[in-house]
Amino acid sequence: MLDYEVIIIGAGLAGLTAAIHLSQNSVSVLVLEKSPLPRHKVCGEYISNEVRPYFKSLGIDFGKEYPSISKFRLQTTSGRSTSCELPLGGFGISRYAIDNGLYVKSLENGVKFRFENVEDVVFNNNSFLVETKSGRFHSKYVLGCFGKRSTMDKKFNRPFIQRKSPWLGIKGHYYSKEFPHDLVALGTFKGGYGGLSMVEDNKVNFCYLVSYESFKEIGDIMGFNEKIVSKNPMLRAFLEHSELTEDFIKPISISQISFEKKRAVENHMLMCGDSAGLIHPLCGNGMAMAITSAKLASEILIAGLKGSIDRDNLEKTYSIKWKNEFSKRLAFGRNFQNLFLKPFLLESGLGILRTNQKLLPYLISKTHGKPMVV
Ligand SMILES: Cc1cc2nc3c(=O)[nH]c(=O)nc-3n(C[C@H](O)[C@H](O)[C@H](O)COP(=O)(O)OP(=O)(O)OC[C@H]3O[C@@H](n4cnc5c(N)ncnc54)[C@H](O)[C@@H]3O)c2cc1C
Fold first, then answer.
1. Which helix (H) or strand (E) holds 130?
2. What is the pLDDT of residue 62?
3. Which CATH architecture has domain 4-46+94-163+258-339?
4. Domain residue spans in the chain?
5. What average pLDDT does the segment 240-256 reach?
6. pLDDT confidence band for 217 (50 / 70 / 90)
């Protein structure tokens, strides 16, 4: 006897979007999430407009109170910079606000939530048994939406989890009188890069990715901001003329961020969002990818529940669709990040970008999808 048609592990963007999509199609859904919602998460919080048509079709409207972002600027430590209009543009919204909006919508749709860590998932007899400390739940399908790094990855011995990853992510919200509402600005520094963009309530998100090797030279966030990040003139000017908002006593951080390839189907679970693969943050497309993958997975699970596709084909089709949709963006992101972290190459690349005005928007478009078809 099944308790739910679908169990979703993880209530981030991927899990919550899938919960809304499935429940809107009369699928019974349980979401299991290990931490309370909503909460601040390390993320640049610039979200591509490609998700707007899909969100609209799900009845999700984040309205006009979120800044619309249409311009991009890149500056290196030498102070050289280039800018362009963003091909598709996006908007700035904190993870606190977007996760909360999706959570409320899921509850309205009748999705059930339990705030417990998932400890095991057993596939047997064409159905799943999902175990937490205090409960055992049966379902026909499971979506793995458990983010970049989870105990679930260890449980299933996923190859990327066996290796240490050298990346840290750091984020804070700041008040700054001078930062433009429509801009996402990227600045490089030794061993990393950081992005500035507005979110709601006149707050500016400053989020950066840095290698552990570079960070450990200083070892604490405030010292690193002062001594290394501030070597970039744009980032220095920002940090000098801004202050952390009341929500952040200090910036928050995450470690061991892995960009390695992952499988889109693991132990018969369809993987969505970062559990299936993380694009390099400088592309500003991870959230849109999480949402797009939730749509792909939801559509195919609905077909499975209707009996239009058997499990074997469902898993194969999802893997192929995932690859077709995301592998080129991921490859572009990987190449850009390699370029970004080599100052000499970046300076030469910047020269080329400055002489060819169409090149930068073209490259940005390669790391994004098209507006989502509904
Ligand atoms: C430094 C940095 C900057 C970024 N900037 C941007 C940006 O500007 N724009 C953009 O589009 N993307 C950006 N991204 C990427 C983006 O943040 C992610 O792609 C996005 O958060 C993916 O959402 P998700 O739902 O897959 O994962 P998450 O939002 O991480 O959700 C996963 C959830 O699973 C839960 N979970 C994990 N294990 C378990 C378990 N065993 N049991 C129950 N629950 C569990 C976690 O608690 C979590 O809530 C950035 C990423 C980084 C690292």
1. strand 127-132
2. 76
3. 3-Layer(bba) Sandwich (3.50)
4. 4-46+94-163+258-339
5. 96
6. very high
